[in-house]
Amino acid sequence: AAPCSAPTLGRCQQAFASFERGLGAPSRCCPGFSSCRRARRLPSPEMVDALEKSILSNVDEKGFVPDDVRNAFFRKLRMKSDNRSCFECPARNPTWISLTYGIYLCLECSGEHRRKGVHISFVRSVELDSFTPEQMCQMAVGGNGKAWEFFKNSGMGKTSGEGRPVDYNSKTAQKYKAIIEKDTEVTCGKFGVRYKETRSAAPALAAAAASAEPPPKSAAADPVDEATDFSFSPSAGK
Q: Which end of the chain, N or C, is more open, meaning fewer C-beta atoms within 10 Å of its C-beta?
């Protein structure tokens, strides 16, 4: 692709034209492309691979994707090195998430997030809970790496210089929450998923999540973590 001649980072019409016409990801020719505010809202190659319209349209009568689709989706996203450790601590292979912030958590840290309340952090299990297409889009635009990078600028998170825990009641956390919501809305539009169509089910899901007890640490090992071959598709187990 020809180098982008846009003088101002984040306003490059040429680089984003093909994406906005639905023709795929734009050229990465812009200097500093990864820091561009618009670029951060683009589907990554991993996201495009995981979020296929044919998969997202395969939902049950309650609007949830089948378990094998959920497993395939999270297997792909958990292949990323940033998502292979807990967002809050060094624990490896987290199987819990905060849907609110799109981050991956270990069992212990998921309990800490639960105690904050679902209005602060909505915790789900990648193995036990059901997901809607919209929620899958929300996790696809998130990820530990993205959150670490954002909070590091405010001296929060385990990768920051100060190493202070993230204050989820802070304006910084609220700003990041808004970014995730906006990115989710954009991605839902690109993949033909109706944004906020499952919001009415959130109270029931939150109540169920609050009443559910996390599985004991002696529970069966996650088959995703045990697998040595990460190549997976929903039809692999059929």
A: C
**Helix (H/G/I), strand (E/B), else coil: 103:** strand
Which pLDDT band, with edges at 50, 70 and 90, does 206 fall under?
low
Residue 38 has pLDDT above 80, yes or no: no
What mean pLDDT, rounded, does the chain reach? 74
Residue spans of alpha helices (H) in the chain:
13-20, 45-50, 53-56, 67-78, 107-116, 133-141, 144-152, 171-190, 202-211, 223-226
For the cut 60, the answer to whether the pLDDT of residue 225 exceeds it is: no
Which strands form 123-125's sheet, in the order they lie side by side?
Answer: 103-105, 96-98, 123-125
pLDDT at 62 over 60: yes
Determine the Cα–Cα distance for residues 136 and 50; give it in Å rounded to an integer: 9
Which is more confident, 78 or 43? 78
pLDDT tens profile 167-180: 999 999 999 999 99
- Cα 102 to chain centroid, rounded: 4
Q: Which class for 213: exposed (0-12), middle (13-18), buried (19 or more C-beta within 10 A)?
A: exposed
Q: State the Cα torsion 128-192-201-221 to the nearest 10°.
A: 10
Write the CB contacts of 217 (distance below 8 Å, at least 6 apart in sequence): 107
Joined together, the tokens standing for residue 151 give 């909070």
- Cβ-contact 15, 29 below 8 angstroms: yes
Strand pairing category for 103-105 and 123-125? unpaired
Dist CA 43 CA 66 (whole Å)? 23
CB 71 within 8 A of CB 224: yes
Please provide the size of the chain in residues: 238
